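Give me structure tokens for this 715-residue protein.
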Amino acid sequence: MSERTWDDAMMARPPSPDLRVLVTDLDGTLLGGDRAARQRLRRALDRHPEITVVFATGRGLPSIRTRLARDPLLPRPRWIIADVGASVIDAAGMAHVDALEAELRTGWPGAQHVRAALRHFPALLHQDGVPQDGRCSFFLAPEHLSPELTAAVARLGCSWTYSAGRFFDVLPPHAGKGQALQRLADKLQWPASGLLVAGDSLNDLSLFQLGAHGVIMGNAEPALLAQVPDGELVHRPPLEGAAAILDALERVGWVRRPTSVVVGYHRPPVHWSRGRWRRPVSPNGILPTLTSVLGDDTDGLDATWAAALVEEEPGAQASAPVTGLPLALLPVPPERWSGYFHGACKETLWPALMSQPQLIRRAPTHWADYEAVNAAFARHIDAHAADGATVWLHDYNLWLVPGLLGAQRPDLRIGLFHHTPFPSPDVFRRLPDARQLIDSLARLDWAGFHTAAFADNFRRLLAGSGPVPRTGVHPLGIDRTTVSALARERVGAGAAHHRATGAPSRLVLSVERLDYAKAPVHKVRAVDALLEREPRWRERLRFRLVCPPPEPGIHAYDATRTALEAAVAAVNDRWRTDTWQPVDYLPQALPFPQVVDEYLAADVFWVTSVADGMNLAAKEYVTARAATGRPGVLVLSRHTGAAEQLATAALLTDPHSPRDLVDTLHRALSLTPSQRTAHTAALAALLDDHSPADWARAIVAEIRGPATRSVADTG
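Here you go.
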């Protein structure tokens, strides 16, 4: 690709209806004001990455590059209008935009010709040493700005601007900051209503003639103030530089203030699917929980939810989601998300969390993406957190944020809740980057877990690394009221579905995403062994496995999928008859009402995870059966977080023992009706009545608690 190019993909991309573009001069405007004001503006723009920044400056590109490299408070622009509007640069690659510059520079005779034609005006001092492209710039005292000089420029077929009482710029006849912005806006389909222009000198005048929102600096040239008509669109605060820009951004409603609580989770509460934004199908889990606590009824919680939003291909999604939630979305390019989530999270960290260290795979590029996304999250949260704010992070996806954020903002209280298991120290240390992760986790003020065993693993891991963060055990529950009400509504549908599918006398159900940690192949092989050992269950037992695949791009479970499909085919081929087959495999996600239908139809719910943070589906099953007076049986892996709460009533099983899987399933199928009734009642009595929203508020309060740390036992 040539240095001067135009991105055709950007040309084709339709504008978002909530487009927001800040077009700002540099000297005296974006660079103006004191350091504190510039810091506040930079943090506000970091809070709102949806605001596109465009520089419109008299500087040339080399000068802009130098300033960007040296000034950490200068936001990164997406586009640059340079050389007083004679140059347009795509800042993504710092490449000039040929197509636009050709239009802007039509009729330009060249700098040498201009200098030669104006050599008879001795008061003109060429700005030697200043990079200039498509313009010719001079110093000129006000008393020497004469009709003769401007007439000479006109004879050249050029235009001119004079600003700050000293800068005389000769330009191509169609160039200027406003003209360049208009052409760029036309190409990118930016409406004037989505633009906010900011300036302080006369060479910014053309920006204020486009019908956009505007802000004139309090320290602006009097001539600019005089020539821009008064009107509702143009704001004139008595503030300088960055402070004036921030004031205008707040006035038009483009930025919001920092909050006292920032929740950091790697996903937003909606996802883009089949042409529209969709919410989770289940009322339970972390996304619905955060939605309930951060929704309209926040009980006074002043919070922001920071989440990643994977950028789609041009035109793939029309606008940002409308959720009614205080979302602060962090754009992540799809290729970076792939390395971060599909690679580092699922192929490197997930095996350790599931105590399967032999499956750990690390690609340097994927880990670099993990570091980059965590660093972006740290900056994003920093920008949204008020002084002394509480930060509540979630899960291993953000393990590097505590270290980065704690170094930047020692005033914050930082907590992290683990929805997954937390492995033993020996397993954790087999991660290639264990030391980096431990150093970051040690910066936490608080760490939360579903079980005491997971919390103990965390404390033992950090023993010897200085004071250990406070820990808390908070098992997440479900919205029992919603599940119970839905179950009672669907009470006939489950049985009807069971009869319609020609189900035999016993239905065993598992509902779980495809994951080796859920041990789906173990289950299918256990069904095979049970039918071999207990002939009476042939043609009387069906195992239904609802097992949706992971999101596209995740390959960590490919081997599990292949083994599962082969096992299902082999068992069905071995035992099927003309009217029956033992395994019903559904590799798809079901709407939650249909999941409840499955709960109501199933005699046994079977959970065999080799490691599991909680397993809310087990609680949903028990709740649905109890709410409708239908006895059921829960077979629950000893290695789930739910087992710590339900162990005294559930039938516990060990997925590492094929014999135990078969024995426990056989026992579940053999319980008498009265035993099943007592079993269901005992399970339901163990479920707590705390709502997920109460759970969330309790955790925020605990993170905010006293900043005390303990010295862990190294045993």
